[in-house]
What does this fold into?
Amino acid sequence: MQDKSKHPRLALPAKLISFEGIDGCGKSTLMDQLANWLTKAQIPFITTREPGGTPIGEKIREILLDPASSEMSSRAEVLLYSASRAQLTDQVIVSAMNNGSWVLTDRFVDATFAYQGFGRGFDLDRLRMIQEWTIKDVWPDKTILLDCDIDIALSRLKARDGAERDRIEQEDKTFHSKVRNGYLALAKKEPERFIILDASRPLEDVIKEFYEKFWKQLGN
Ligand code: TMP
It folds into this structure.
């Protein structure tokens, strides 16, 4: 029986593209690159981020990333990330795509599998159930995974001017390694959706590889 709670998903040409990776991997820079390209090509698009991307989501983001939220339970963490995502899906993503606009998002559903599932050890099957309800079948068309050496990513985070590390960034190296390996495991399971880029290299090389792989695979 068809699940009526699922969003009607308008097909082509609108695409949902998510950018994922550990903190400091450079995904925001790469997303800006694609945004510039789409602007030049006059393809309508919006950009957004998670957690956040809506007024409600941005309030949830503050709670999630505040270092003072140190006593947050892992269940509360999952549900808050999911609440922000549900709001973004309902308020922004589905309507943009139904209007024919691409959506580029700085993190989406895979971040919860990687950080809360692989990083915190939250049960993956349960997470999948929660996420299926959260995004109502609006899975990304392509997910760009910037895979980066932990030390390089952490040194990039340190080099950010004066920015205080948020609650998740403050986690130790072991946690970030688990997240990195988690992302790679997710990508291995869905090779047709994920594009993995070696983000330990200089940005120009990453951008070049991105364009080569992205246009080739988008049609698949
Ligand atoms: P950002 O720094 O890339 O904006 O992401 C915010 C932080 O939240 C980052 O450390 C990753 C983390 N995060 C999760 O733990 N789970 C999630 O579902 C999402 C979207 C982000």
About this structure: The radius of gyration is 17 Å.
